[in-house]
Amino acid sequence: MPPGRDDSFRGLASELRLGLVAILAASDAPLSYSTILDRSPVDDGGRLNYHLRQLTGTFVRKSSAGYELTQQGRWAHNLLVADVLNDEVERDPVVIDSVCGRCANPTVEISYRAGEGVVECPACEHVLSAFDFPPGPADSLSTAAFVAAYANRTRAYVDLADDGVCPFCAHRMTSTVDSWAERRPDAPSVRFDCAGCGATVYAPVGLVLSTRPRIASTLFDHGAALDTTPFWEYEWAVFSAPTVSQQEPLRISLTITVADVEWRVVVNGDASIVDCQPSM
Predict the structure, then answer these.
(1) pTM for the model
(2) Residue 209 pLDDT > 70
(3) Which ranges of 5-134 would DSSP assign to H, the alpha helix?
(4) Nearest in space to 114 (alpha carbons), one of 97, 98, 129, 131
(5) What class does CATH assign to 5-82?
(6) How far is CA 18 from the centre of its chain?
(7) 224: pLDDT confidence band, cut at 50, 70 and 90?
């Protein structure tokens, strides 16, 4: 870890300081010392002053207007709300109001384990989606809200990755067509690798294509509502949809069907579109 980062984390090593960060995050304007004292559980001004000093600089900014969070303080608060270090949160599989895009079974299940939301179809026994999701909201959201947040967040993160930006650390990401060996070894998918944090993201070819303007506008024009319908309900957006049409050079074919209209999309080894036309 680079020099100085240990000290930054130590600055938050107190329940009281975490509480002060939360108090400041809840305010739209700087807070005076007396207001913070009133809102905190501390009745000792000297103790409060000590802990505020430990936060000031990295996480808290002090000015004539009062105390407020720095951007680093807001990031720290976001991590606390997301509860990202909590490895005990789990949600058992529950049936949701959704359809499997692979087999049209209406009893799709969603669960949460090991830091991931997981959407599975018990009928065809396939994982339709598995992706990073923070423990905090995974633990607190209703099932319907969890499904919506998971679907929209996953698609947004894939969109960022496809733009070459790591959704976790904002460093550069590169894309290749690969297989998700752990869960879908028999189907090509898009693999994104980050040069910064080392994150690897696997996404269905169809989901990746649905974030690109050329495909997204066509889908929208033909009634595909990806903002309200989870992507795994579309046959073309699941891992098993694409096929390898050519090995050298690599070509992956995908048929996208919306409102009885079909397009054949072909991508190359780095997931760039090389052909897109209506199916005859």
Answers:
(1) 0.82
(2) yes
(3) 5-10, 15-25, 33-39, 45-55, 71-82
(4) 131
(5) mainly alpha
(6) 25
(7) confident
Cβ pair 98, 144 in contact under 8 A: no
Kindly give the residue spans of alpha helices, DSSP state H, lying in the chain.
Answer: 5-10, 15-25, 33-39, 45-55, 71-82, 135-140, 143-162, 205-210, 213-221
Report how far residue 232's alpha carbon sits from residue 239's, in angstroms, rounded to the nearest whole number: 9
Distance from first CA to last CA of the chain, Å, rounded? Answer: 56
Q: What single DSSP character describes residue 269?
A: T
Per-residue model confidence as pLDDT tens digits over 162-206 = 999 999 999 999 999 986 655 555 679 999 999 999 999 999 999
246 or 24, which is more confident? 24
pLDDT band at 59 (very low <50, low <70, confident <90, very high): very high
Other beta carbons within 10 angstroms of residue 6's beta carbon come to 10
Using CA atoms, how far apart are residues 198 and 205, in angstroms rounded to an integer?
21
Task: Give me the pLDDT at residue 154, please.
Answer: 97
Tokens standing for residue 88: 């005990």
For residues 70 and 82, what is the distance between their CA atoms, to the nearest angstrom? 18
**Domain segments of the chain as ranges:** 5-82, 91-278
Contact at 8 Å (CB) between 129 and 112? Answer: no
Average pLDDT estimate for 206-214? 93
* Tokens (6 digits) for 215: 């495909």
Report the length, in residues, of the chain.
280
Cα–Cα distance, 223 to 206 (Å, whole number): 16
DSSP 275: E
User: Could you tell me if 33 and 95 are in contact, meaning their C-beta atoms sit under 8 angstroms apart?
Assistant: no
Q: CB under 8 Å to 43, separation ≥6 — which residues? A: none
